C-alpha cells in the first residue's frame, strides 16, 4: 500500500493536470441547485421534470470503469449516486475525470435525475466541475480511524465517516435548543455576562489566568456562567434571567471533567430552592422527552427513569448510611481514616475537601433520579443557611452516580456573605487553589439589597450522562496535546 507522501505526490500531479487543462481546482463558487438531502426528498418530482440541475458533494466511492462509472457523493451525512456514461459525458470529459478525480474530492455534477435498472435513485451526469481537490486520502472505511486520540484529533474525518457520531452532535445541538426554549417559554430573559473577570465567582475551581494588556491587569477566565453578575441583575429588578455560555476550569481531566465546556445558569427572584427543584425536574424531563424521545436511560452502570419520583437524599444521613461517618460531627482524622479504609485518595487537611471526597465516594452508588439536599455550610459559600443547623438550602440532581447540576436559595445576607468569603480567603491562603475568591463589590451589591432568589446551573455533563459517553467524546473539538 502506498504511503501518505506517495499518495500526496500523485494527487499533486493531478492538481497540476487540472491547472494545465484550464480548471481552477479551488473555485470560490460552484454550481449547486439543491442539497443531496433535498435531491433525495424531491427525487420523484425532479425525475419527472427532467430538469438539468447541479449537485455537489464529496466523492466517497468510484465504481466501474470504461464506458460507465458510478460515483457516490456525500454531503452532511446524505449520500447520492451519480452515473457517468461515456456516450453522454463525452470521451474527453470522461477521461479527464478518471485522470484527475480521487475519492475525497468535492465535485459538482450537472445532469438529469434517473432510476437505474437496479432501482437506485441517481443522476445521469452531463458535465462535471472540480469544487475542491483533496491532496490527502480519506481513511479507509473499515481500516481507518481506530485510535481514540487520532479520532479526536482528526474529528472532521471521524464526523465525515461516522453517521452515528454526526447524529450525536445534532442531538447535542437540540439539547441546548430545547433548554433555551424551555426558559424562554417560562418567562426567563437570556443575558450575556463577562467571561473575563478580576475575581472568579460562582464555583470552587482553579481558574485560568491571563493578562489584559491595555489595562495592565491580571484577570481570569470565568468558572461559572455569570453567577455573581446575574445576581446583580436580580438587585437591578430583573426577576428571571438565564445564560448559556462557555466556562473554563484549570483542573484535571476525567470522564466527567474537561477544562472548557458549556454551562447554563438561571436566576429566579422571589423563588427558593423548593421552587428550583420543581422547575429543574420539569426541565430534565422535557429535555429527555424532546431530545431523546424517552425518560428511561442506562448510563455509567445505572438504570433510571426521569419520570420516577425524585427522592430527597440528606447529605449527612446518606454518608453515614454508606460509611458510618457523620460528617457534621466527625473530626478530620475520623474522616481521613474512613477514606483510607475505603482506599479513596484525598488531598491535605482541608475539612471541605475531605467532606466532599467522602460524599463523592457515596454518590457513585446512587442511580436516581434524586435531589441531594442539606449540604454542610462549609461547602456552599453562596447558599442561604437552614436556620439553626450547619446546613444550607442547596440541591443537586443525582443521576447515574453523578452530580448533574447545583442550585440554592441564594445567600442575600451581606454580613453572612462577607464572613463566608473571609473563610474562603483563609482556605486560599492555606493553599486550596479551588477555594472561592472574594468579590467585595458583590458584597456591596448585597448591602444595597437583593431579593430572595433561587439559582441553578448545569453543564455538558448532563448530556454526556444521558448518552452514556465520557464528556470529552461529546465535544466537537476537545483540547488535545500537540503531536510531538
User: What class would the helix/strand composition place it in?
Assistant: alpha+beta
CATH architecture of the largest domain: 2-Layer Sandwich
Number of domains: 2
Helix content: 25-40%
Ends apart, CA distance between termini:
25 Å
Strand content: 15-25%
Which spans have pLDDT < 50 for at least 5 consecutive residues?
A: none
Mean pLDDT: 92
Largest sheet: 9 strands, mixed
Number of separate strands: 19
Shape: elongated
CATH class of the largest domain: Alpha Beta
The CATH superfamily of the largest domain appears as Bira Bifunctional Protein, Domain 2
**According to CATH, what is the topology of the largest domain?**
BirA Bifunctional Protein, domain 2
Gyration radius from CA atoms, angstroms: 29 Å
Number of helices: 16
Descriptive report:
The chain is α+β, with helices and mostly antiparallel strands. It has 2 domains: 4-138, OB fold (Dihydrolipoamide Acetyltransferase, E2P), CATH 2.40.50; 159-310 and 368-474, Bira Bifunctional Protein, Domain 2 (BirA Bifunctional Protein, domain 2, 2-Layer Sandwich). The chain is 36% helix and 24% strand. The strands form 4 sheets. Strands 6, 10, 11, 14, 15, 16, 17, 18 and 19 form a 9-stranded mixed β-sheet that branches. A 5-stranded mixed beta barrel has the order 1-2-3-5-4. It is elongated. The mean pLDDT is 92.
Amino acid at each position: 500500500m502506498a504511503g501518505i507522501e506517495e499518495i500526496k505526490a500523485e494527487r499533486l500531479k493531478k492538481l497540476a493536470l487540472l491547472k494545465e487543462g484550464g480548471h481552477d481546482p479551488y473555485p470560490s463558487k460552484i454550481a449547486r441547485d439543491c442539497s443531496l438531502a433535498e435531491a433525495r426528498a424531491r427525487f420523484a418530482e425532479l425525475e419527472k421534470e427532467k430538469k438539468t440541475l447541479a449537485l455537489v458533494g464529496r466523492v466517497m466511492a468510484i465504481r466501474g470503469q470504461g464506458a460507465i462509472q458510478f460515483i457516490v457523493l456525500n454531503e452532511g451525512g446524505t449520500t447520492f449516486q451519480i452515473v457517468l456514461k461515456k456516450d453522454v459525458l463525452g470521451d474527453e470529459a470522461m477521461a479527464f475525470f478518471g485522470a484527475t478525480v480521487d475519492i475525497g474530492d468535492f465535485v459538482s455534477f450537472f445532469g438529469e435525475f434517473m432510476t437505474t435498472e437496479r432501482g437506485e435513485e441517481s443522476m445521469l451526469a452531463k458535465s462535471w466541475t472540480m469544487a475542491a481537490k483533496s491532496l490527502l486520502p480519506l481513511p479507509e472505511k473499515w481500516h481507518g480511524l481506530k485510535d481514540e486520540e487520532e479520532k479526536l484529533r482528526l474529528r472532521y474525518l471521524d464526523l465525515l465517516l461516522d453517521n452515528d457520531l454526526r447524529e450525536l452532535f445534532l442531538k447535542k445541538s437540540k439539547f441546548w435548543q430545547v433548554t433555551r426554549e424551555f426558559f424562554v417559554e417560562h418567562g426567563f430573559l437570556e443575558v450575556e455576562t463577562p467571561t473575563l473577570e478580576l475575581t472568579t465567582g460562582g464555583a470552587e475551581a482553579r481558574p485560568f489566568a491571563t493578562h489584559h494588556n491595555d489595562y495592565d491587569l491580571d484577570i481570569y477566565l470565568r468558572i461559572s456562567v455569570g453567577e455573581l453578575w446575574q445576581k446583580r441583575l436580580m438587585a437591578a429588578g430583573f426577576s428571571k434571567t438565564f445564560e448559556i455560555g462557555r466556562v473554563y476550569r484549570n483542573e484535571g481531566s476525567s470522564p466527567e471533567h474537561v477544562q472548557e465546556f458549556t454551562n447554563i445558569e438561571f436566576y429566579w427572584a422571589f423563588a427558593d430552592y423548593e421552587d428550583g427543584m420543581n422547575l429543574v425536574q420539569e426541565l430534565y424531563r422535557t429535555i429527555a422527552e424532546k431530545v431523546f424521545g424517552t425518560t428511561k436511560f442506562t448510563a455509567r452502570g445505572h438504570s433510571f427513569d426521569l419520570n420516577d419520583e425524585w427522592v430527597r437524599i440528606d447529605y449527612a444521613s446518606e454518608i453515614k448510611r454508606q460509611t458510618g461517618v457523620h460528617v457534621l460531627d466527625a473530626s478530620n482524622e475520623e474522616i481521613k481514616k474512613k477514606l483510607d479504609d475505603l482506599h479513596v485518595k484525598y488531598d491535605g487537611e482541608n475539612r471541605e475537601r475531605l467532606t466532599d471526597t467522602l460524599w463523592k465516594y457515596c454518590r457513585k452508588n446512587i442511580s436516581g433520579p434524586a435531589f441531594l439536599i442539606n449540604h454542610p455550610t462549609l461547602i456552599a459559600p453562596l447558599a442561604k443557611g437552614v436556620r439553626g443547623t450547619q446546613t444550607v438550602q442547596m440541591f443537586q440532581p443525582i443521576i447515574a452516580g453523578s452530580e448533574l447540576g447545583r442550585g440554592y436559595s441564594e445567600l442575600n445576607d451581606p454580613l453572612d456573605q462577607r464572613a463566608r468569603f473571609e473563610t474562603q480567603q483563609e482556605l486560599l491562603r492555606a493553599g486550596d487553589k479551588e477555594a472561592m475568591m472574594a468579590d467585595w463589590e458583590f458584597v456591596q451589591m448585597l448591602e444595597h439589597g437583593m431579593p430572595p432568589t433561587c439559582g441553578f446551573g448545569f453543564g455538558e455533563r448532563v448530556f454526556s450522562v444521558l448518552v452514556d459517553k465520557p464528556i470529552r467524546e461529546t465535544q466537537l473539538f476537545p483540547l488535545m496535546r500537540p503531536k510531538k
